[in-house]
Amino acid sequence: MKNVKQLLMRLVAEDSGQDLIEYALVAALVGLGSVASIGSLTNSLQNTFNGIGSALTNAVA
């Protein structure tokens, strides 16, 4: 039981992997934000290209 307590105390006190975990969390949040914004960007690009296509069609006709 004493060994388990010592192990837990060392795990709580040790912070060598903390920076890596923080960077991974920041990268995950940036990725999640990028994926969430792609939907609105897709709609915006589609509307822009449809407008350009319509303008070109009307200019030729």
Short description, anyone?
This protein has 61 residues and is mainly alpha-helical. It has helices at residues 2-13, 18-60.
Structure description:
There is one protein chain. The protein is mostly helical and 61 residues long. It has two helices and no strands. The longest helix has 43 residues, at 18-60. The chain is rod-shaped and about 85 Å long. The chain starts with a helix and ends with a helix. The model has no long low-confidence stretch (mean pLDDT 87).
Write the layout of secondary structure elements.
Layout: H1 2-13, H2 18-60
Alpha-beta classification:
mainly alpha
Low-confidence stretches: none
Oligomer: single chain
Cα separation of the termini:
86 Å
What's the Cα radius of gyration?
A: 26 Å
Key phrases:
61 residues; mainly alpha; 2 helices; 90% helix; 0% strand; rod-shaped
